[in-house]
């Protein structure tokens, strides 16, 4: 019965996405992160792609004339899309690369739709709560598992792109600050409390994934949040106290895993293999600087550089982008991250000067810290395709467009 109910809800989302594209965006996010179709025994079903295409169709039919595509502000995403497309068709094995290009294309399509349709404070709030509720549900379920196991467990993701514990940790590193600051922006006490609880659950889950990269990303998020507080030294002191308390309360396996960060490259075989892989990636980039070897093609060419039975990815999102799409692809990706951070800070400064009570200010804080957390944690795993980070980039673009439109209306005296 549960499977029938889930399948019915998921299939109903396709026509709903067509007639209500904003609902389609939120529904796509729910499917992409929660993966309810796996509970209905359809793990390979491309339901998120179906919802994305229905959302696109609905946007063209019902919203295109009112909300035009933001093509110029999205210039870097379009260029990165083009670079990845060229890298795919010039790849060592184009067939292997095409599947990954389809995934990237879906991600970029949703980002473009987001910048076109999420153009008001109300729509931003709805979208953020869709993200928070979806990923928050995963964190709630993970915390339930942690309690059941009395902390003696390693938490893995829901499946698909987030099945691995490290990938799941990265997703939560990006989602936790978004959730915390969105909760700060809420006026309703119950929603504010719910957001704080979900953010805390996300941070707890990161620790119990036993992902060292995730832990470093979580620490970067905590420190960045403390530095944004009015009393920075008190905030930093609170972070230290919370870390010490967590250290004292955490199970021994968690403490041992975190302690291993200090000596990882001296005694840990997986850490040494990661350094070895980074060296191989630099050699691949040196041989294929313009277009890389194509998405997923590192699996095809790795043994040409190092004889091993274990064929690996780069274990670094930035090296992975360069391997997949060349140095121009890496430059575009880094440019997107830097430009998004700049846009958020500029938009936040505008609202602080002219609308100091706007919740968009808190949203900007959360997205800025999410970018910081991603940059730190992504150095240790290959998730240059993380959908959530492109959604953060898209929201940064939307915020810039909204701030510019508000400034134009203010200059014209529009109320």
Total domains: 2
Radius of gyration from CA coordinates: 21 Å
Alpha plus pi helix count? 17
N to C succession of SSEs: HHHHHHHHHHHHHHHHH
The residue fraction in helices comes out at: over 70%
What is the mean pLDDT? 88
- Structural category: mainly alpha
Low-confidence stretches: none
The best one-word shape is globular
How far is the N terminus from the C terminus?
52 Å
Q: How many E-type strands?
A: 0
- Strand-residue proportion: under 5%
Largest sheet: none
Helices and strands, with pairings:
Layout: H1 2-19, H2 21-34, H3 36-39, H4 47-63, H5 75-89, H6 94-117, H7 121-148, H8 165-185, H9 189-208, H10 212-228, H11 232-249, H12 252-267, H13 269-287, H14 298-305, H15 317-354, H16 359-377, H17 387-412
């Amino acid at each position: 019965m549960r499977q029938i109910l889930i399948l019915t809800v998921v299939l109903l989302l396709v026509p709903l996405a067509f007639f209500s594209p904003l609902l389609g965006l939120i529904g796509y996010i729910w499917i992409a992160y929660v993966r309810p179709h796996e509970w209905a025994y359809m793990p390979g079903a491309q339901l998120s792609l179906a919802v994305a295409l229905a959302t696109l169709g609905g946007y063209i039919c019902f919203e295109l004339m009112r909300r035009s595509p933001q093509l110029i502000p999205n210039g870097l995403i379009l260029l990165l899309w083009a670079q990845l497309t060229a890298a795919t068709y010039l790849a060592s094995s184009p067939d292997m690369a095409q599947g990954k290009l389809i995934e990237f294309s879906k991600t970029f399509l949703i980002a473009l739709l987001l910048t076109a349709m999420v153009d008001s404070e109300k729509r931003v709030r709805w979208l953020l709560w869709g993200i928070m509720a979806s990923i928050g549900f995963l964190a709630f379920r993970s915390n339930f598992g942690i309690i059941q196991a009395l902390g003696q467990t390693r938490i893995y993701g829901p499946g698909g792109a987030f099945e691995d514990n490290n990938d799941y940790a990265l997703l939560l590193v990006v989602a936790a600050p978004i959730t915390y600051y969105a909760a700060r922006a809420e006026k309703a006490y119950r929603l504010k409390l719910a957001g704080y609880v979900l953010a805390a659950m996300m941070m707890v889950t990161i620790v119990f994934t036993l992902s060292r990269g995730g832990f470093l990303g979580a620490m970067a998020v905590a420190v960045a949040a403390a530095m944004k507080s009015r009393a920075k030294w008190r905030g930093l002191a609170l972070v230290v106290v919370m870390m010490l308390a967590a250290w004292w309360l955490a199970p021994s396996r968690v403490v041992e895993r975190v302690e291993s960060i200090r000596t990882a490259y001296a005694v840990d075989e997986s850490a040494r293999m990661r350094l070895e892989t980074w060296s191989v990636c630099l050699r691949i980039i040196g041989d294929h600087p313009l277009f890389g070897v194509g998405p997923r093609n590192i699996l095809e060419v790795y043994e040409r550089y190092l004889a091993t039975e274990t064929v690996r990815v780069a274990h670094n999102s930035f090296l992975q982008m360069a391997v997949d799409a060349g140095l121009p692809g890496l430059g575009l990706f880094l440019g997107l991250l830097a430009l998004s951070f700049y846009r958020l800070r500029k938009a936040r400064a505008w609202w602080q000067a002219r609308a100091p009570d706007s919740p968009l200010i808190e949203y900007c804080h959360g997205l800025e810290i999410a970018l910081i957390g991603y940059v730190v944690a992504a150095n240790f795993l290959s998730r240059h395709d993380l959908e959530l980070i492109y959604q953060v980039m898209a929201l940064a673009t939307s915020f810039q467009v909204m701030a510019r439109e508000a400034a134009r209306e203010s200059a014209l005296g529009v109320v």
